[in-house]
Write a structure and sequence with these properties.
Layout (H helix, E strand, L loop, with lengths): L8 H8 L19 H10 L21 E3 L2 E2 H9 L1 E5 L5 E7 L6 E2 L5 E5 L3 H6 L7 H8 L7 E5 H7 L15 H14 L6 H11 L3
Antiparallel strand pairs: 1-2, 3-4, 4-5, 6-7
Helix pairs in contact: 2-7, 2-8, 7-8
InterPro entries: GmrSD_C (IPR011089)
Pfam families: GmrSD_C (PF07510)
Protein name: GmrSD restriction endonucleases C-terminal domain-containing protein
C-alpha cells in the first residue's frame, strides 16, 4: 500500500497544476486520481468496519495548515496549484486569480470565497482509524498534497458537506460524482482507513456512473 508523505508533495505540484477534470472542464484537480477500475479494486480491498470513537474527535489533533515552502502554507499552496492566473503577495496570500469549484462548477475571483476541503473529512478519518495514528501522521494526512485529498471548492458548499461521508453528502454537480468517488476511495485506500457499509454502497453507486 502506498504511503503518502508531505515531502513528496513538492514534486507533485507542477504536474498537478496542469490536470483537468473531465466533468468540470475548467476546474483544476489534485494529483493521483486513479482510474475507475483502479478505484473499484481499491474499494474492494478496503476493510469494511463500523466507525469508532466519534466522541473523542478533536480537530486540533490534525495540525494544519503547515508551512510548505518559504512563507506559503498548505492552503496557499493549493490556491496557487488549483487556481488560474494566481497572483500572491510577499506573504504568499492570493491577491487575485480565479478558482473553479469542481463540486458545483462555480468560479470565484476572491480567495476568501474558496475553502480548501479535506475530501475525506478529518472527523471521518478519525472515525475510520486515524484515532490510532500519531499526531505526526495525522498532520501529514491533513496537509497531503501528494494525493487527491485537498480540493479548492466553494466555501458554502464545503460548509454544507461538513464531516459527512458519501452516504450522507455528495457534490451538487452530479457529473463530478465519478471523479469524487475515485479520489475519495484512493485516499481511504492509501492511508489504510476503513469504510462502513453504507459508505461503501454509496461509493460503489458513484463509481457505477463512471
Amino acid at each position: 500500500m502506498r504511503r503518502v508523505t508531505i515531502l513528496a508533495a513538492a514534486t507533485a505540484l507542477a504536474l498537478a497544476a496542469a490536470t483537468l477534470t473531465s466533468t468540470a472542464a475548467h476546474a483544476l484537480t489534485p494529483p493521483g486520481i486513479p482510474s475507475a477500475s483502479t478505484a473499484a479494486a481499491e474499494l474492494a480491498a478496503i476493510t469494511v468496519a463500523a466507525e469508532r470513537n466519534a466522541d473523542t474527535y478533536d480537530r486540533a489533533l490534525f495540525p494544519h495548515w503547515i508551512t510548505i515552502s518559504g512563507t506559503c502554507n498548505t492552503r496557499e499552496t493549493v490556491l496557487k496549484r488549483d487556481g488560474r492566473n494566481v497572483v500572491t503577495s510577499s506573504s504568499c496570500a492570493a491577491t487575485s486569480g480565479s478558482w473553479t469549484s469542481p463540486y458545483d462548477g462555480a468560479t470565484w475571483t476572491a480567495a476568501a470565497d474558496v475553502d480548501i476541503d479535506h475530501l475525506v473529512p478529518l472527523a471521518e478519518a478519525w472515525r475510520s482509524g486515524a484515532y490510532a495514528w500519531t499526531t505526526s501522521r495525522r498532520q501529514a494526512f491533513a496537509n497531503d498534497l501528494a494525493g487527491p485529498q485537498l480540493w479548492a471548492v466553494t466555501d458554502n458548499v464545503n460548509q454544507a458537506k461538513g464531516d459527512a461521508d458519501p452516504a450522507a453528502w455528495k457534490p451538487p454537480l452530479t457529473s463530478f460524482w465519478c471523479t469524487y468517488a475515485r479520489a475519495y476511495v484512493d485516499v481511504k485506500y492509501d492511508w489504510g482507513l476503513t469504510v462502513d457499509s453504507s459508505e461503501k454502497s454509496a461509493l460503489s453507486g458513484m463509481l457505477d456512473r463512471c
